[in-house]
Amino acid sequence: QEKSCHLSAALLGEDSEISQEQLYELLKYAALGKCHNAAQPSWCRIYHQSHLAGVVVVVLHEMSQLHFYRFYLQFKHLRRVFRHRFTLTPSANFPVSLYGEGTNLKPQNTPQGLTSTSSECIIKNPDLQCDPIIQRYGEKKQGLTSYTLTLEEQKKNDYPIEGSPGCKGYISTECDQQRTDSSPLFGLDCEMCLTAKGNEVTRVSLVDARGQCLLNELVKPESTVVNYRTRFSGITKKMLLPVKTRLSDIQTRLKKMLPHDAVLVGHSLNSDLQALEMIHPSVIDTSLLFARSEGRRFKLKFLAKAVLGKEIQCEQKLGHDPTEDARAALELAQFFIEQGPTKVAELNLEMLLTAEKLAEVSQNKAVLQPQRCGFQEQLNEPPPLSKPCFLDCLQVTGQKPLLLGRQGLDSSGLCQSNLSTSNKQILQRALEDVPLSKFSIIQFSLGPEYLASHLHAGLHEKVRSKLTDMLTIYAGPFEENFCMKSVKKEFGRCGPIQSLTVVTETFQPYVCIQYEVLEAAQLAVESLNGAEVAGSCIKVQRPVTAAMLDCNVLIKELELDVENEGVIYVAGLKKSLTETDLQEEFSQLKDLETLFLPKDLQSGKHRNCCFLKFQKTQSAVDALEALNGWTMKGSELRSRNALAPGHLWRWIWQMNHSNGKQGKHIFYEKMEQLSDSEQDLRKKVKKLDHHIKKLYRSLQNNTLCIVLFPGVNSTHGSQSGLGLMGIKDDEGRSAC
Q1: What keywords tag this UniProt record (predicted)?
Q2: How does DSSP classify residue 179?
Q3: Cβ-contact 303, 310 below 8 angstroms
Q4: What is the mean pLDDT of residues 150-168?
């Protein structure tokens, strides 16, 4: 049964701002897996990456987080499908930060105005029939028994064989049971020192199929040590002084540990078995498995980096770590068996090795080259090597990157800028070409008439104004000499207060309260409207403005937002409580996954509220019932469903604390200019959301899809970007 891919990201807290470099790491790993030193990014994790059907990145040119929340209701598909969102740090050169420097792709001929790079411009993979791996194993995937060395291959490669003249006195592992494709794999590696007898074992490591270390033992040589080979073995005289274990002890332990159908895996495993003076009938040798022509062999260090994306045998360490080497060899064999010869051959390991050597030579030349001066010499100097781009790596592995857009994808001419093409044409081309490509970048744009800086400034002010109104409530009327302290205490139990002022223009006093989070304002409206506060029965409401007429609709949609599933807001906490205290207090709540305790971004102090994320939606519903009237450390808690996704906390805070440099009359002028085209802009956004929906529905299951609002970073100002991501599942939604 095909494994499904999963994506997890710890993005609930206010630190969910992702840099361009972190985004690049995610895309590189998603596209290449463990190849080319592509490691899992630190901020999220892709499970079963090898089962990804493809990666599709949708870039909404010059749009920011501001656009998403200004047109939140219009982005119906985006907010209902993608489970993970993150704030994206804006970049001055977004395309380069997106897919790295040094891209060597050239645009192909496309319909007028449409820019594209696709399969026709790729470096074609060499004929795989000539690859030594294909010549040896064929193209089809096979079980592990197809990759174990035959008796003849063992003899040819100097493996200890039962009855051979040089193996007198050797111990058999007695693993003589018939091997099957489900037989267990064990990684083995030894470190040796040179003694008067020859190579003798000084350290032995054995790992099981899950990579867990079963044995990691120092061994006392029988003969006098001539050379400890510390640089490679990591063994010193001091290390071996207290050691009592002898080779015979290790032989006995290995015989007991290995099941009768065990298959040993190692890199040049013959040397290890010779040093152990042991005979084992079934082995996989990774130095031979990853076949090369003319009897040459890849080093384990290179294979680990090129295939697994792991750095081993680092120069900073003293000697090799046999457990690390045993695990690397085991994982290489598992990779080969799982992926099959064709996938391994498509890695083009020979080409990668050549590129690595050239890079080393270039670095050495750069280090050794004396500094020179003179204009002519500078002219003759070769250009510096650019950072490798993962799109280039995709080409090397035979995958087909696709780039489509109406606006230049970068400033280097990768895709020529032409504004005559519509988003509809781009969508049609994407629906045809994306299924043929493993990695696609599709760029849509609202058009230059909607991206002008003055419109963007007006948009910012409209969002800020509406957000302020949603965070604000009016309460009253109160008695003439009401107790302000009582009012602040009662309303403070709903969440952190930004400001509290008395309204004096009314016949009786009212108070205007602005909260720091949307949930607090909504909780105040729901729980205190009609309540008795400071001796008065009061009414609680939000400001009545044209922009607030759809507030209830917006609140309802925010509650249904896919990112708020299973998340609840809890207020009324004492500020003295730490995160550890809260974890302990809430530990009895079923399926609690994450607790986020917001803090003031200036002072760093915790607020009197928190967010709880549950593994199941029903568990969140049950928790809301349980928390109703819950008292913690003498304080009664209030709770409701979350409204603002976690990444929005920092953004709301910044909006609340931002001070415009220009006068209000200028903002009003800009807002009027925006209003003239507001209705048309909403239609454009709605259509854009529909385009993305159509593209998303056409994707195969297990496709990673990322939608990026890149943000703006220019002389006119900076606006944070927004990323939405998920892996499409059978139901057409993004999987967790």
Answers
A1: Exonuclease, Hydrolase, Nuclease, RNA-binding
A2: P
A3: no
A4: 92
Give Cβ neighbours of residue 102 (< 8 Å, ≥ 6 apart). Answer: 385, 386, 387, 388, 389, 392
The predicted-structure confidence for 332-366, as pLDDT tens digits, reads as follows 999 999 999 999 988 888 878 877 776 665 555 45
Give the span between the Cα atoms of 500 and 515, in whole angstroms: 9
CB 239 within 8 A of CB 220: no
- What phi and psi, each to the nearest 5 degrees, are found at residue 506? -95, 160
Q: Tokens at residue 682, please?
A: 């909403």
**Residues contacting residue 275 through CB under 8 Å, at least 6 positions apart:** 190, 192, 199, 200, 201
Report the amino acid identity of residue 530: G
Q: Which pLDDT band holds residue 639 (cuts at 50, 70, 90)?
A: very high
Alpha helices per DSSP H over 183-321: 230-233, 237-240, 247-257, 269-276, 286-289, 300-303
> How far apart are alpha carbons 95 and 116 in whole angstroms?
14
Q: Tell the burial category of 38 from Cβ atoms under 10 Å away from its Cβ (0-12, 13-18, 19+).
A: buried
pLDDT at 364: 54
In the chain, which segments carry CATH 3.30.70.330?
A: 459-550, 566-642
Nearest to 87 by CA among 8, 6, 13, 7: 13
What does the alpha-carbon distance between residue 89 and residue 19 come to, in Å, rounded to a whole number? Answer: 5
Reported as a pLDDT band with limits 50, 70 and 90, residue 601 is low
Cβ atoms of 313 and 306 closer than 8 Å: no
Residue reference for tokens 């925010």: 558
CA gap 206, 189 in Å, rounded: 7
Residue 437 pLDDT greater than 80, yes or no:
yes
Q: What whole-number distance in Å separates Cα of residue 638 and Cα of residue 628?
A: 7
Beta strands in 326-423 (DSSP E): 401-405
Domain with CATH 3.30.420.10 in the chain: 144-355
Please check whether residue 494 is in contact with residue 527, taking contact to mean a CB–CB distance below 8 angstroms. Answer: yes
Tell me the CATH number for domain 566-642: 3.30.70.330
Query: Which residue(s) pair with 195 in the sheet?
Result: 198, 225
CB of 222 closer than 8 Å to CB of 197: yes
At 710, give phi and psi (nearest 5°): -65, -25
Its CATH architecture, for the domain 459-550, is 2-Layer Sandwich (3.30)
Q: What is the DSSP letter of 365?
A: H
Helix (H, G, I), strand (E, B) or coil at 307: helix
Question: 419 to each of 158, 407, 428, 674, 733, how far by Cα in Å?
Answer: 67, 6, 17, 22, 32
What's the CATH code, domain 144-355? 3.30.420.10
* All residues at 6 or more sequence positions from 725 whose CB lies less than 8 Å from its CB, including other chains: 7, 9, 82, 84, 85, 86, 704, 705, 706, 707, 734
> CB within 8 A of 335, min separation 6: which ones?
34, 307, 308, 344
CB 490 within 8 A of CB 534: yes
Average pLDDT over residues 305-328: 84
Q: Tell me the DSSP string of 579-638.
A: HHHHHHHTTTSTTEEEEE--B-TTT--B-SEEEEEESSHHHHHHHHHHHTT-EETTEE-E
Cα-based angle 418, 441, 2 (whole degrees, multiple of 5): 155
Pairing of strands 278-279, 171-172: parallel
First to last CA, the chain: 20
Do you find a cis peptide bond into 111, omega within 30 degrees of 0?
no
